[in-house]
Design goal:
With 430 residues, the chain is of the alpha/beta class. The chain folds into two domains: 86 residues, Beta Barrel (OB fold (Dihydrolipoamide Acetyltransferase, E2P)), CATH 2.40.50; 273 residues. It has 13 helices and 18 strands. The chain has a nine-stranded mixed beta sheet with strand order 11-10-9-12-8-13-16-18-17, with helices on both faces. The chain has a five-stranded mixed beta barrel with strand order 1-2-3-5-4. Helix 5 packs across helix 13. The longest helix is centred in the last third of the chain and has 26 residues. It starts with a strand and ends with a helix.
Length: 430
């Protein structure tokens, strides 16, 4: 059941701005607005708490506004829910007068390139968060595809285990394939609002991401897709991305079980990418600093996905960082497979031509055949250069020095994804 409380806005803080305003003038607020609210109905001093408002859904708030906030996550003390969320603005939001219109597409998405006949108003014809009190109309990118979908796509897709990998993957991709365009598809598994991510905004501002689409239940990106398949196809085939990376927003849903966590969305995303004919890479979750043994080396989250995948994918390991083999990896495997580590019929991985910075690698450790079948590659990385880039470099309070393997794994994935993009491009030119 929803846990809602009336509150009064007593302080407004930063509201993000769109990268480009629809009319080319002053950028309009978008994403999140940070607030301080006082619980209660103003009939006496109440508890003051931090809150966030999704501007596209509930509009901009001002001091004195009466709002309804969802207090559930903060009351439960969830690690990723250190604030309340505005459910409705009673002062100015009930008729939509305080909310902004959905972001208008920016170049190159205007005019004939995307919408066909400029005189045809396709209009919003689908719902996000449908059958909830926050359902809202969107114009899905699948609208432009119709029934004419060109397959196979042929361009690579990287799949994230955590949102915290995105910045490292995008930075390393740019180093490995200068000038290539990488786009981001936000999926379920973590935060659903597209405006929640600081990383996305920084990467877009620096030109390290070519676009941001939100798929499925995720919403609030630069464009909306009903499905991950529709988003990947649109980004790679219509918008001309050279590669895509898809994964959850910030935070992750977790229950401490093998299958009950947001990282399992990587299984679905990888299968979608494979079905579309994308060379597919899984950015595995690794750690050298996580106090939980199940996440050290290669996390049991990623090992489970690697075991359950119906087809092999490419997996990157970082060279120059302590290799995730030996005792750490064995412990991770045992955590997933109950110590027995049962073998299954082996599938020989296809050995791909390696770039100078990437070499095919088979870690010298016994492992279940379904994990060994993947195309394991090792890539050289530059942790100091990434640490100096000013991009987000923290995972659960640990920085590059405290957990080099986490960031090294993301950089390795970006480097190998760049190599897959170069291979894909050269194959199309032939």
């Amino acid at each position: 059941m929803l846990k809602l409380s009336p509150a009064t806005v007593v302080e407004t803080r930063h509201a993000h701005e769109r990268l480009e305003s629809p009319g080319g003038g002053r950028p309009e607020p978008a994403g999140e607005q940070r607030l301080v609210v006082e619980l209660g109905r103003g009939d006496g001093p109440g508890e003051r708490r931090e809150a966030i408002a999704d501007v596209a859904l509930v509009g901009l708030a001002q001091v004195g506004d009466e709002v309804i906030v969802n207090t559930q996550a903060l009351d439960l003390g969830l690690g990723s829910g250190g604030f309340d969320i505005v459910h409705a603005n009673l002062t100015r939001g009930l008729q939509g007068t305080g909310a902004l219109a959905p972001p208008a597409p920016s170049a190159p998405w205007q005019g004939d390139t995307l919408f066909g006949d400029p005189g045809t108003d396709l209009g919003a014809n689908a719902m996000k968060l449908n059958y909830t009190s926050l359902q809202h109309a969107i114009e899905p990118v699948e609208h432009e595809q119709g029934n004419r979908v060109a397959l196979p796509v042929g361009r690579p897709a990287g799949v994230l285990a955590l949102h915290g990998q995105l910045a490292g993957v995008a930075w390393a991709f740019a180093q490995g394939a200068p000038g290539a365009r990488l786009g981001y598809v936000q999926t379920e598994g973590g935060a659903l609002p597209g405006g929640r991510s600081r990383s996305v905004r920084m990467l877009r501002e620096r030109g390290l991401l070519a676009g941001h689409l939100t798929a499925g239940a995720a919403f609030g990106g630069e464009r909306e897709a009903i499905t991950t398949a529709g988003a990947l196809h649109h980004g790679l085939q219509v918008l001309g991305w050279d590669a895509a990376v898809c994964g959850p927003g910030p935070g992750i849903v977790g229950s401490g079980s093998s299958l009950g966590h947001g990282g399992m969305v990587a299984l679905d995303s990888a299968h979608v990418a494979l079905a579309l004919g994308c060379p597919t890479l899984l950015a595995v979750r690794m750690s050298s600093g996580d106090p939980r043994s199940r996440h050290r080396g290669i996390s049991h989250h990623s090992l489970t996905v690697l075991d359950l995948l119906l087809e092999p994918v490419t997996v990157a390991l970082p060279a120059g960082v302590r290799s995730p083999v030996g005792a750490d990896l064995r412990a991770g495997l045992q955590a997933v497979f109950g110590g027995a580590m049962p073998g299954r019929p082996a599938v020989q991985p296809a050995v791909q031509p390696a770039a100078p910075a990437v070499e095919v690698d088979r870690p010298p450790v016994e492992r279940p055949a379904r994990i060994a079948r993947h195309d394991w590659r090792r890539a050289r990385i530059d942790l100091p250069a990434y640490a100096a880039s000013g991009l987000p470099a923290e995972t659960m309070g640990r920085g590059v020095i405290a957990d080099p393997l986490f960031f090294g794994a993301a950089l390795a994935a970006g480097s190998v994804l760049a190599q897959l993009a170069l291979e894909s491009s050269s194959g199309q030119d032939e």
